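Researcher: Hi, I'm a grad student and pretty new to this. My advisor asked me to get structures for two proteins we've been looking at. I'm not sure of the right format, so I'll just paste the first sequence and hope you can take it from there.
Model: That works fine. Here's the first sequence with its structure tokens right after it:
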Amino acid sequence: MSWLNWNDLLAPSNPYAAVFFGIILTLIVACSIWYETKQKRILFIAIVTGGLTTVIGVGLLTMIGFY
């Protein structure tokens, strides 16, 4: 994992690190939501929404030249 630096948690330095930490954060939030609701449908919606938000956000930041 040479594309991952120790400070990427604060400000990702490349799109791969941003997607990596975005997916990890999405899974943490989705598990928290599932713990509160105990509904698999809501869990699935949270994972899909978080994943799409992460991928679209990284795509937009890459498109404008942030990375």
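Researcher: Oh nice, that was easy. Here's the second one.
Model: And its structure:
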Amino acid sequence: KKATIKAEKEDPGDVNDLPHNLGTALPDLPVKRKVEDDEDGEVKVSRRKINKSKIKEEDGDGAEVKDVKVKTPKKANYGLTPGISPYPDYARPTPEECEEVTRLLSAKHGVVNAPKAVPPPSLTVAGCGEVPSVLDALIRTRLSANTTGKNSSAAFQGLVRKFGTIPNGVGKGSVDWDAVRRAPLKDVYKAIACGGLADRKSRDIQAILQMAWDENRAAEPDGADVEHTVISLDHIHAMTTDDAINKMLTFPGIGPKTASCVALFCLQRPSFAVDTHVFRLCRYLGWVPTKPGPGQPRIDRNTAFAHCDARVPDRLKYPLHQLFIKHGKECGRCRAITGTGSKDWDNTVCPIEHLVHRHGARKGGKKERKLEMMEEGMPEATADQVAEEEVAAAKTNSDSELTELE
């Protein structure tokens, strides 16, 4: 039975590199620490019954205490068919359009190339799936949902301090996830409380771990040592991209965006992950329809992912995703909190100005931004906090900690 070791303090290095903590593939300008994603498809499930465990809601020490409820595993594809657009009659983007936008943004922000190897796990940055272990990637990305990069990384560090790290084998150098699985739910909750939404996330994380543990045990031959503590989802590496994404969607709290990120960064597969920045720029560029046709689903990030993943050439999915994030954070005209009266509007030269049609509510006000994020599925309390921080950041013309959730 493997042992755990206490986490050593790690030098965070240059956290202003490539979005998603993936190195320095964007050489021209340093990238601010990536703001992490909101989750699309929040589902509470648990394969393991937890008796008499109670945890507090996020509102403070005097918050109401609720019992942990047991739900069945979800089976969801979000109404999407891999490789098929939900808007088959909408013939954009074309490969030529994707090439042009990649060229223009690369000239502005630097050429992006996918790393040849997945970097080792960080103990200070939660990230968005850019680690070798599929299980590690999935849980890190779930932890990053509906909060800022700063908060999710603080929550991840809480897990490291509480449960230690794995010294060798699958998941080497990251959190001892089996210790997290076996721990009382309240201990997991307390470890990640600083990151927000700890009630839902602690339940989801333990449910994911239990499901993975159950799968591992079921695959073992009779008489195998069931006491050993290796938990792995690395068999997903052998699946096709579509099968891998569909498999990940069966886990609690995992939606298309998170599954796509893990496929892109951990599995190193071509998958056009759509976060808030990517979705906004896809709309500005006209890469998704403004209104669905008869019988078609409404346009949101999930359907934008399905549509663009079917149309963007595979070799451009990684660079476009990264460039859209960088441009969506830095451009004085394409940021979420900006408008014709914004401080940087007049002195900003947007390389895709001639291609975009910016639309939607006037950005720059807290109320408008809050409503926009809530329409994308963000909880009201989180949207209110993030909108307030975004407006404050915009007023000081600082991008260092833009808290737009993806």
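Researcher: Is there anything I should tell my advisor about the second?
Model: You could mention this: The longest helix spans residues 198-218.
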